[in-house]
Write a structure and sequence with these properties.
Layout (H helix, E strand, L loop, with lengths): L4 H6 L8 E8 L13 E8 L2 E5 L2 E5 L4 E4 L6 E4 L3 E8 L12 E3 L1
Antiparallel strand pairs: 1-7, 2-5, 2-7, 3-4, 3-6, 5-8
């Protein structure tokens, strides 16, 4: 059985390079589990709506908006139908002092 790009990424112990781009199309799917990774995630939807939930709150990002998820923050992602997600995964060492909390970025 072929794995999805998200499942392949979840299996990584480290990123292949310090800043790693990732694109995925999903059809009304939720990552039904909370997860965290050792890198920062900057995610936005080119189409559809991203719904990211953390202990700090719920962050909804329609197209042209983004969500910043710091390394180690547990989160769950839900998407509206036919969402096109674009993410940058960034090693924390590549952005010293830029961690902060999860946030919605206009």
């Amino acid at each position: 059985m072929l794995s999805t790009p998200s499942e392949e990424l979840a299996g990584l112990a480290a990123l292949p390079r310090s800043i790693f781009g990732h694109a995925e199309s999903v059809a009304n799917r939720a990552l039904g589990y909370r997860h965290a990774h050792p890198w920062v995630q900057f995610a936005y939807a080119v189409a559809g709506v991203l719904d990211v939930r953390t202990d700090a709150g719920r962050f909804i990002a329609p197209p042209q908006r983004a969500v910043w998820i710091p390394a180690g923050v547990e989160h769950q992602v839900r998407c509206s139908a036919d969402t096109e997600i674009r993410s940058l995964y960034i090693e924390p060492a590549a952005l010293p002092g830029a961690q902060g909390a999860a946030a919605y970025l206009p």
